[in-house]
């Protein structure tokens, strides 16, 4: 099972053997293929508003949420109840995978945030940015079931994808931005619930089985008679390979850190 597209992106789909990555391109291709256009009922002005708001969601608010994830990777695992063995399809113990995730996700995430620009701000400033975005969305939605009326459009789809990451974070995990949305923007909570009920009637089953196609019957699992020895060998080989990959990744991170430290030291000596 593959977990990322050839471009290294999520989500991605395969349509008639062709891989399509990036949400915007996926929606465009599916709309064209099945002649179903979510925004067909919008005016030109509404489409422009939708385009600008989606840009805010994808290029600003989602990075504010990503900032929290990079800063608190341990809370990401706990808050979303992530089982890395299942998510990555690996056999290594979760304790090792969790340790590796916390180190690499935090470091790489911090670099991405700085490259984006949001990472240069203080935590307080970033939180205020997020609250401002939520306020804009809340005022846009107002008392309507969806952003442009009684039926969802592309903006509703994108908003759900982003806001659900706040709403469905475990309440046991402290996150001020999630609390702000709950207390100050209750209409956004209602929007998330409506989109979930409309688009994912089997949501609970999906979350329980961790299977996006829970409604499709699955074949009976194969019997293990006569295969245990071979499977054990494969398991050991896989664990060895996975362990080597993780060790190399950690060594690479340490090497990069060392090089960065030496460069800074040289700069200071030059001064």
From TrEMBL:
InterPro entries: FAX/IsoI-like (IPR026928), Glutathione-S-Trfase_C_sf (IPR036282), Glutathione_S-Trfase (IPR040079), Metaxin_GST (IPR033468), Mito_Protein_Transport_Metaxin (IPR050931), Thioredoxin-like_fold (IPR012336). SUPFAM superfamilies: GST C-terminal domain-like. Residues 214-271 are annotated as: Disordered. Pfam families: GST_C_6, GST_N_4. Residues 130-195 form the Metaxin glutathione S-transferase domain. Residues 4-75 form the Thioredoxin-like fold domain. Residues 217-271 have a biased composition (Basic and acidic residues). CDD domains: GST_C_Metaxin. Belongs to the FAX family. PANTHER family: FAILED AXON CONNECTIONS-RELATED, METAXIN RELATED. This is Failed axon connections, isoform E.
